[in-house]
Design a protein that fits this description.
about 190 residues; mainly alpha
């Protein structure tokens, strides 16, 4: 039986702090312009970020500056935006202050951390044995599930909702950032 790595919570928090710093800087530059994203547009934004990661993984080369780690950071931030949008709905204009946006960001980042800690307890750090490419595939699967739930108008019979899929996207993306930051790569 594997033991929990004492670094996991620290690395997870450090990753989220870095993502929050970028989020705050983008709020400064653009305000909460993402408030205008309808659910389907947000899902498509997540899709293009995850597809780009997979493309770089398969081709072994990026033709534009942002690297895979940056795309995982974007998935984390857009995943949190998705959770905010689920709570508040979309708007026709920016309707929250930057401080309100950051407070909502903190709420969902904390929820993602707590979920990870509970799952990590049950799964015994299994994510550390996984390949980064598997995170990408799982994220793409979660996005496809979100698209199907959207197509069903939110009505599922036995499946988790969009919020649970966003949380998983955030957590798999954090794991990707941790592996890419701390050099815990597994080849394959």
């Amino acid at each position: 039986m594997a033991k929990e790595n004492p670094e996991t919570e620290k690395q997870f928090k450090e990753t989220l702090e870095g993502c929050r710093t970028l989020f705050a800087k983008k709020l400064h530059d653009y305000n909460a312009s993402w408030r205008m994203l309808r659910p389907s547009s947000l899902t498509d934004q997540l899709l293009i970020k995850a597809r780009r990661i997979r493309s770089i993984e398969v081709k072994g080369k990026a033709m534009v500056e942002d690297d895979i780690r940056s795309e995982f950071v974007a998935l984390i931030n857009y995943g949190i935006v998705g959770l905010i949008q689920l709570e508040k709905g979309f708007a026709d204009s920016v309707d929250i202050t930057n401080d309100e946006a950051l407070a909502l960001y903190d709420k969902y980042a904390s929820e993602a951390l707590q979920l990870m800690l509970r799952k990590n307890h049950d799964y015994d750090e299994a994510w550390r044995m996984m390949r980064v490419s598997s995170y990408t595939d799982f994220i793409l699967t979660k996005i496809e599930r979100v698209k199907e739930i959207e197509n069903l108008g939110g009505g599922t019979l036995v499946s988790e909702g969009i919020d649970a899929n966003y949380m998983d996207i955030i957590n798999y993306s954090v794991f990707g950032v941790i592996k890419l930051t701390y050099g815990e790569l597994q080849r394959g």
